[in-house]
Amino acid sequence: MDAGVGNIARPKSPPQNRFLSLRKLLCAASFEGMPDIVLATINAKFIHAAFGLRYLYANLGDLQSRVRIAEFDINQRPVDIAEVLLAHNPKIIGLGVYIWNVAEATEVVAAIKRVRPEVIIILGGPEVSYETESQSIVQLADYVITGEADLKFAEVCRELLHDRAGTECAPRPKIIPAPLPEFSQLKLPYEFYDERDIAHRIIYVEASRGCPFTCEFCLSSLDVPVRAVPIEQFLGEMQKLLDRGVRQFKFVDRTFNLNIATSRAILEFFLERHHPGNFYHFEMIPDRLPDALREIIARFPAGSLQFEVGIQTFNPQVGQLISRKQNYDRLAENLRFLRNETSVHVHADLIVGLPGESVESFAAGFDQLVSMRPQEIQVGILKRLRGTPIIRHDTEWQMAYNPCPPYEILQNKLINFATMQKLRRFARYWDMVGNSGNFVSTTPLIWESGSSPFSAFMRFSEWLHAHAGRTDGIALARLMEWLFEFLTTEIKSGAHPVAEALWTDYRRGGRHDRPSFLREYLPEDETVAPSRPMASLKRQSRHLVQSK
Length: 548
Description:
Helices cover about 35% and strands about 15% of the residues. It is built from 18 helices and 16 strands. A six-stranded parallel sheet has the order 2-1-3-4-5-6, sandwiched between helices. A six-stranded parallel sheet has the order 7-10-11-12-13-14. Helix 5 links the parallel strand 4 (about 120-125) and strand 5 (about 145). Helix 3 (about 80-85) packs across helix 4 (about 100-115) and helix 14 crosses helix 15 (about 455-470). It is globular. It starts with 15 loop residues before the first helix and ends in a 7-residue tail after the last helix.
């Protein structure tokens, strides 16, 4: 019921048979005794452990023994999720609702209310914290706690259970706002990651909440006060996680490098305790990287540090329109430092569809970012998140959004629907080719002739869509073959250099079987052993071969 958490560069889920057994264990583990309260959510993937539920659980106080956590994922049918929840026979269900699960969550709530209308359902999370009353899921549920519900949820549950015990309280409103809690009021949740979480799932942590910036497309712009966990307390909790075997830490702080002294203390802490296989992900302000941080960042070994760098646009006028301030010269210099003088894996974000951003403007920004050589460029499609002030541009810039989640832009004044669809395909194919690490050597060949990377990749994107007719479910071998065909027939690149680049990329992923379409171009006596990416971070490790 707190703000949502993101993905750590999409590590793969466990094999399917293990995935199923673990999921059953997670559900079955909660059936020991019938709880009064079930805390539940639907995660985007099995590997995402619900950080918000653990915060709620940690702060339930004397109610904790009466509560169970039940996590699901969006691959499960809503009716089956409702079955598992009702099998607990709870009095109250607390359900975390996010942009990625609201459709499924609505079906779950509707089914429960048809079968067991007396079960009290309390909603929370960013998706139901704004524009609340108009939502179908809100109309179905009993209560909604808006904002950070870490403390308010326990308070409401106590009142409701007291009512059920026969003592009536004053009527309470359906929509219950939660005041922002300070960390001094909260019990931290890290002890409630269990051994299965540590072995198989992403471990989310936070040293702060809030953001000082006011970017109009982002929910964090509504959460201006930045509140920090006392550094000694936070590092003590991180030591406990390390002692328990945690090796990957995903920080959800929106501006990790806002307070330089705190950032440095955290980085020094992890560097002093670093072991091969440890991995740390941070979201960074791109134009804020002073020498005090540079020195320690440069000391982290390859494959251990990832920075998510939100650039969003290189157009200063667009930045001004959406209340995003950044120093572009300093940003460029910082990215060059990270690529040339450190081993940091840089994941940089750009957004398609911002008000005032034409295709030509976005293309220029994309080309500029490609020249800075981050390992990944996330091309995101603008979303109209509930509550964000981006809606103030709807009339002037004719912003039209999909009314269904994830509420992506369909068209605007400068980009019509057909063009936006092309850009959507561009983003998807770029993720498959440019970001995946499967084509590190091959991708630059697409614009090798000196053309704009954006224009060249858009040409490939349209060609690929004409041949594949889809943007998902394309097997790696088939994608390789299409890349070979495009480069040799459309770009007129030499077949042997293209084959060598594809073969190098293929082996980089730990593969050694020769795709049939490449065999005639490869030497028969090829004996170089394939490299083996780190099992848990394959996407990042495939990028390590890139020269700085």
